Amino acid sequence: MKRQPCRRAILAALATLAFGAPAHGEGDLVRGAQAARACMECHSFAPGRHMTGPSLAGVWGRKAGTAAGFARYSDALKRSGLVWDERHLDEWLTKPAAVVPGNAMDFPGIADSRTRADLLAYVKAVSSGRVSAPDRGLPNLKEADAASQVTAIRYCGDTYRLTTADGKTHAFWEFNLRFKTDGSAEGPPAGKPVLLGTGMRGDRAAVVFSRPEEISGFIRRQCA
Ligand code: HEC
Hints:
This protein has 224 residues and is α/β, with parallel strands linked by helices. It is built from eight helices and seven strands, in the order αααααααββββββαβ. The chain folds into two domains: 123 residues, Cytochrome Bc1 Complex, Chain D, domain 2 (Orthogonal Bundle); 81 residues, no CATH class. Helix 2 crosses helix 7 and helix 5 crosses helix 7. The relative contact order is 0.12.
């Protein structure tokens, strides 16, 4: 890893001038929680709740690439030998691709050192259990309401027609409906897929099944 202490010191001094606050020091938890929203698209802080990225529960002080049960680490991260202390997390969040070339986290980084300090304070507080993070991850699909419980799927022409447990039918152009699986503890019960809106405009959605084997058996080719 290349280190540029002089440049870093100058940048830190500039940051101090620009923001009127020390570049190092205790971050602000409220601002940190705000900044963490960008992470929650891909990470949860709930233990064992892996999404695109691994659960960040207990990440502080842990060896990189070792969250139990996360199966999609890049070889690059697993081989990095990093331990997630303050310095390494700060460098990672500045520019992940520079710290571990070839890693799988599709995130450009956070240039502002003050924002990183706030975020790190938050990650540390959540990781140690001092603050509990709202789980903005996926909803628990075992608790889906009748309006989202799919009871039948018919396919005709280019259209899927879904019936939900509240008796309503929903029509989707076949290209706008995705079939997904969630085999985790929060996934749907066996044989009871759940409808989730996935776009801003309501024309796109996903049906989440508990297992891939259920999908084609559930869909009937039927025009009526
Ligand atoms: C687009 C999805 C995405 C976003 C956004 C994202 N991450 Fe990640 N993150 C990942 C993935 C995927 C990995 C695994 C990388 C690998 O294996 O190379 C990862 C890995 C990590 C790791 C290493 C975990 C470990 O167990 O070694 C940390 C720490 C981390 N991310 C923190 C963050 C923080 C903090 C943010 C918000 C500023 C963030 N990530 C934003 C997808 C994302």
